[in-house]
Amino acid sequence: MRILASVLLSLLFLAGPSQASEEVVRLPVEQVIVTTDRGDIAFATEIATTDETRSRGLMFRRSMGEREAMLFHWPSPRLVSMWMRNTYLSLDMLFVAADGLVVHVQANTVPQSLDVLSAGREVTAVMELVAGTAAKLGIRPGSRLKHRFFNGS
């Protein structure tokens, strides 16, 4: 019994702080415009540009406004994989090329799912919106983001 207790304590110690704090972290907000066939749509968008902020993303959020978003940006194109670990909101994910072109929309993600979500091609950004927003506002592949990060903006 004593050995079992030691093993369990060791495992807890090794696991340590890997469990993220449930504190909601807010990031700087910038305006991002999404251009669709229906016109331009402005979003108040939190910007995640570091490994730490991209890893944390929208974890532990319980609500988000329809015109709020989070933009994950990488300095060069890469195959990006996302998941919903510790994310309580269903989201629409816009996978975005370096010129701001939306190349894939992953709609209505499953909260807390560990399924890997990807565009299947290199992108420089992913923008997350409240689930259903993309369909409601006509955001689809071919829409374009306007922001300082994108060449075509």
Quote the beta fraction. Answer: 35-45%
CATH third-level topology: Jelly Rolls
**Name of the CATH architecture:** Sandwich
Q: How many H/I helical runs?
A: 3
CATH class: Mainly Beta
The percentage helix is 10-25%
Radius of gyration: 18 Å
Which descriptor suits the 3D outline?
Answer: globular
Number of strands: 7
Q: Which descriptors apply to this entry?
A:
single chain, 153 residues, alpha+beta, Jelly Rolls, 7-stranded mixed β-sheet, 3 helices, 7 strands, 40% strand, disordered N terminus
What would you say this structure looks like, in words?
- It is a single chain.
- The chain has one domain (26-146): Jelly Rolls, CATH 2.60.120.
- Helix 2 links the parallel strand 2 (39-48) and strand 3.
- It has a seven-stranded mixed beta sheet.
- The longest helix is centred in the first third of the chain and has 14 residues, at 2-15.
- It is built from three helices and seven strands, in the order H-E-E-H-E-E-E-E-H-E.
- The protein has helices at residues 2-15, 51-56, 133-137; strands at residues 29-36, 39-48, 68-82, 91-96, 102-106, 117-130, 144-146.
- By secondary structure, it is an alpha+beta fold.
